[in-house]
């Protein structure tokens, strides 16, 4: 986000309020590579941790209150890291003592707000924390909504043409905090009031736009990564991705070459009564291995890579591990890979760029899932059937001490 602001040429200092928990090399990178001023502050104790609805990820969000202590500045625009700037917003520095946008009809959003620093206000806020001021969510937003309860009744901010600074508190137009959810409904922006300047992503934490899996589930994630690609790049994640890709390709080559050997080693036509318990164990192990093959690569892909790199790496990893499953359990490849093919198809359905609106997109995705479900179920049934057939032929349980070497022609007899 900081580099996107730099690229837009904003006329202001870029300041990061950092707690002592931030690693020193991160601080150095911010200072040297990004040209950011770093203000290190002690963590404010969150007095709302014992609330029943408290979410631990909000534990340190009250550190935002330190923005009021930056008295060397006349105005501060406080930002969350999940903001995506589409254009310069220097006019925000003309706003009053406190300004914020309402995403919720009744509660303003603290992903972006404007303030006039004041040690008097800062100390009063600390006093209110000590007194246990009402805070519905235990985070910075709940506290500030309680501290500025009349903001909903304040006038809308319109920057003066002469560049003068305003006084008092104001509501910011929605264009300064465009909730990505509004975009997903129509798959386009339809915010007629105010400048369409800043996108915010107040979604579930695991669907934030910097995670590779958030796209194409949430289409705007690609815009976020395009901003990062043009500024930070992905050099930090590249070595891990290349190593993973090489390992996956190696696994696929080895399992392909080793498969005939496994067949000769494991297969025996000699009949013997099956052991039901062991057969069940093998079936469960095969199905569990298929599940693991689809899940493990997801967690190995670096979380913040570009989606167009993350998804192919995940699919490659899942295919590689599935090849191990097919080799070890002597399964047909297509039924094992059916779920992976279905996932690939769902990505195409979600990424299809010509939907008229978000509702149509969801309906098409549901229709695709409805059509895929029987196919995936049939593939699992085929896997179990193949395992059962192999077990009945004693493919996995040759007799102990029995040689698997084929008999020579001279030893054959009727």
TrEMBL record:
Keywords: Manganese, Membrane, Transmembrane, Transmembrane helix
Domain of life, source organism: Eukaryota
UniProt xrefs under Gene3D superfamilies: Spore Coat Polysaccharide Biosynthesis Protein SpsA, Chain A
InterPro entries the record matches: GNT1/Glycosyltrans_8, Nucleotide-diphossugar_trans
Membrane spanning stretches: 238-257, 277-299, 311-331, 336-356, 362-380
Claim: Transcription is one of the keywords in the record: no
Signal peptide: none
Keyword field contains Transmembrane: yes
Protein name: Glucuronosyltransferase PGSIP8
Source organism per UniProt: Ensete ventricosum
């Amino acid at each position: 986000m900081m580099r996107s602001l730099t690229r837009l040429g904003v006329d202001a200092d870029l300041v990061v309020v950092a707690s002592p928990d931030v690693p020193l090399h991160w601080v150095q990178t911010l200072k040297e590579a990004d040209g950011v001023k770093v203000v290190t502050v002690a963590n404010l104790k969150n007095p709302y941790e014992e609330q029943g609805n408290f979410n631990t990820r909000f534990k340190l969000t009250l550190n935002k209150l330190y923005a009021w202590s930056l008295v060397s500045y006349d105005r501060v625009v406080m930002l969350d890291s999940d903001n995506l700037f589409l254009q310069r917003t220097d006019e925000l520095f003309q706003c009053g003592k406190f300004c914020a946008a309402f995403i919720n009809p009744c509660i303003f959003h603290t992903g972006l707000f404007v303030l006039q620093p004041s040690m008097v206000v800062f100390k009063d806020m600390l006093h209110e924390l000590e007194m246990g001021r009402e805070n519905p969510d235990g985070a910075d937003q709940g506290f500030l909504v309680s501290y500025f309860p009349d903001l909903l009744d304040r006038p809308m901010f319109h920057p003066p043409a002469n560049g003068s600074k305003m006084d008092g508190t104001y509501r910011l137009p929605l264009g300064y905090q465009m909730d990505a959810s509004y975009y997903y409904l129509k798959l386009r922006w339809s915010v007629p009031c105010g400048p369409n300047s800043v996108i915010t992503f107040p979604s579930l934490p695991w669907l934030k736009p910097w995670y590779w899996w958030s796209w194409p589930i949430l289409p705007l994630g690609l815009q976020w990564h395009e901003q990062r690609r043009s500024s930070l790049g992905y050099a930090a994640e590249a070595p891990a991705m290349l190593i993973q890709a090489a390992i996956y390709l190696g696994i696929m080559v080895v399992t392909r070459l080793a498969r005939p050997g496994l067949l000769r080693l494991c297969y025996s036509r000699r009949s013997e009564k099956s052991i039901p318990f062991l057969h069940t164990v093998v079936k469960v192990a095969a199905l569990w291995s298929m599940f693991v093959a689809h899940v493990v690569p997801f967690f190995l892909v670096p979380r913040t890579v570009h989606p167009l790199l993350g998804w192919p790496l995940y699919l490659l990893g899942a295919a590689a591990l599935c090849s191990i499953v097919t080799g070890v359990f002597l399964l047909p490849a297509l039924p094992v890979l059916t779920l992976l093919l279905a996932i690939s198809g769902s990505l195409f359905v979600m990424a299809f760029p010509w939907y008229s609106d978000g509702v149509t997109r969801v309906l098409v995705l549901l229709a695709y899932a409805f059509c895929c479900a029987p196919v995936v179920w049939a593939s699992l049934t085929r896997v179990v059937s193949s395992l059962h057939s192999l077990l009945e032929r004693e493919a996995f349980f040759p007799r102990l001490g029995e040689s698997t070497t084929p008999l020579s022609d001279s030893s054959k007899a009727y």
